[in-house]
Amino acid sequence: MKPLSSSKSAVLAGIFMALAAAKPALASLILTQAGTDLGFTLSTFVSGYNAQYGPLSQGIAPNGQVITGSLLNQRIYVFNDVDNQNLASAVASVPYTCESANCNFSMTTAGGQVYGAQASGGIFYRFASNGTFTPIPNLQAAGLRGYFGMWGNPVNGHLIASSNLGLVDIDPVAGSFRVINAGLFPDGVSVSPDGTTAYLAIGVGVQAYSIATGALLNSFALGGGPDGTGVISGGPLDGRVVSNNNNGTVVLLDPTKAVSDPLRSIVIATGGTRGDFVSPDTTNGTLFLSQNEQVARLSCGPGCSIGAPPVLTPEPATSALIGGGLFALLLMRRRSAV
Predict the structure, then answer these.
(1) CATH number for the domain that contains residue 143
(2) Which of 68, 158, 228, 229 could form a Cys-Cys staple with 244, CB 3.0–4.6 A?
(3) What is the Cα–Cα distance from 78 to 323, expressed in whole angstroms?
(4) pTM reported for the whole predicted model
């Protein structure tokens, strides 16, 4: 895909801003009975967005706060990682200038840092905890620009991103990249917890590709306009894929089941406005679901994580053993000092 000219970018940016001025009807994303029965819970992280496209995605800063953006007023917001907030709850707000055709930021967390790029042609940036950002070295000079989705590889801290050069693997520390597949220009991008597979939202379905070779591994027709996806790790739903859809539904995909199996895809939430990208909360294993007017939070319950390796907490018996061991060690030291 050729980079857009500056004049085309300016025109398209104006169109997106005009769309943002229109306030769509609000809706409420709620779990279906199937979603509840499977152990999911759903809450509101931040509400109050009124743009045609609300916040595209989020990242977790090194201090544990959440960074996201807004196309409506071209600002980067920083929030504490708690539910039931609105835009006024932000602990920091940083203005930015449109530089692409769709100047909402796609973001992700990789190696404990937040990275992002404005959609349809933006530069790749690294974000500081206060929401300010600087270019990742070398990428702009190499002609690499963001396209839409991106995801942090949890194994090596790289970015797996949709770009103007195809699907790419970026080392943000070294400022280098490798083209995984030059023929892929997906919308949403996510990575399996083992770092081997990229799940891409393309057309009306989701496709799985090898990150190492760029080869197509599987294809899933879901309907509803799949956009952001996240792979579940741990628990009874291990390996299932969550899809946030443009038609306001959230679907759970079981890649192991046959196409004809009615349990291959299950609607676990409905009633949303327009589902877009998703982002993993790497601190607690929940998944942020972007909608027009809000960011929702989806949890799959204890012992599992969506979009990142499970957050491990010691079992009660393990904690007791650790506590007992520490007590014994302190007692031994006290006796030796006598």
Answers:
(1) 2.120.10.30
(2) 228
(3) 36
(4) 0.85
